[in-house]
């Protein structure tokens, strides 16, 4: 009865409210209290939150809580000190964030949070937005000039030292509906009644100064992830004895303020796709040639690079151990490194796509022929492609290659190069921002780079001339486009046939955030604690390593139980990969591959189990002795993050209504008491 009365009273009140019709998503009156609440309160369930991260030097990201803060368009905000939540158009985001973190900015006094609204399809975006530094990871550069502006658009928002207030990037669908609410506030002159917001990104590590403190107090976990590595050919016995190895690197994802929208399409995924497609094409070319290559190729798809080059620094540390190897390629065997950097925005020059080889000093002096090999390979690429050396730069650009060059590590460097689509400055205007998505990449540029890379790697591995190259251009083109659809779109996304054949994923959008490491697993090679993305990359390298003319022939390979079970692969040179088949029985097949997972977090992190059986992460060292950045993510309270918007009459109105209600309640009790007294008196007279 009370619920029905409440519903009736609320409906009558809302019917008199001029804003109720604006908030109705369905025709007719609400049918239940829950339906009524859903119409009153708008919760942004698909918005991406900026959350609190910590590193060895301080905090980064966002945390905080605000309640009933009025909504204002950023363009209309006059810098007053009363609490507000600003609504920011995409094209205003760089200006807003730059002002927000500026020392002494008036925004810091009144702004309690912000909601970013988007239009979709890359429309309404600023000319540039890069939260990254002007020299990303410059502290790891192997040369003295650490002020060089590789990224001229950098705003340096990822390592601010202190967190920002709650920030949310709404989805395109949410943005369209939300605009009507903000327009209501604007049309009403930003006076009550108006829409207000409750935002929270509270985190448990908010009081800790850095990763050392939060790990010690168990209020955070290390950001981890894995690297996937594999060699061509898969067995050392299949190559000429005593020959060296070439290490081929590509990054998997980068950092971002809004991790749920993290793509890094141009920054890293363009190079990842080019390298993975080249891996498949070279494997098939080696197989079809029938000759053992003179050099082995070790491919490393490096995870967690957006967090202080954690993946490559861990790999470089592992390779210092003489007994450690990548499928038989140890540190002493690696003679050269080829890194595939951003290659999705190659500019046309004289009708040719232009790529650049940024080489280490040792590479130019001792391996000048490598540049000649790439130059020769470019001449055979379908469509005009040219390769040049950059001019006027202090050295190699921000890259994983820097982890193998820093003399502070072991005093030795491995010569190498970084293949990019830029000369003196990074061409990506949206580096380390959620705007670096599929609209920021030219797939034809990725294909040309992959074709160039395939030819050059084949020549390096076989010591052959350009005339003997047997790269399947159709296969390369098909893989580049298919993998781009899988990794850079939501439809089909990870539901694409390429992924579903070798990795069981229920996700649509690929997540490039490496996630956190809860505990130290006993078996690094188990797929159970890996992300869907890394399981797919592992399966791709494994199923392509033999260079089969038709990958579907794997269906006829010996069966095994994936990821674990009684049926194992008989040969030590084989691994069990997932293979989707219409046949009943085991869901795995045995293939010849040397693929492996490699932890992509700092070797300074140590997991220790206490006497009571509980474990915790710690750091072996201090802030003065540890050069790794060691990024961590704070634990979240149960109700965080959360973003709600609803119509409010204002504090004064609510106070008046409270006291009016209180007065009515007291009057009702007084009237009832008087009535009872009168009734008792009348009853006694009877």
UniProtKB/TrEMBL annotation:
It is a single-pass type I membrane protein. The chain crosses the membrane at residues 651-671. GO terms for cellular component: plasma membrane. One of its GO terms (biological process) is protein processing. Keywords: Glycoprotein, Membrane, Notch signaling pathway, Signal, Transmembrane, Transmembrane helix. InterPro entries: Ncstrn_small, Nicastrin. Residues 1-15 form the signal peptide. It is found in: Membrane. Residues 49-205 form the Nicastrin small lobe domain. The keyword Signal applies. Belongs to the nicastrin family. This is Nicastrin. It comes from Chloropicon primus. The lineage of its organism: Eukaryota, Viridiplantae, Chlorophyta, Chloropicophyceae, Chloropicales.
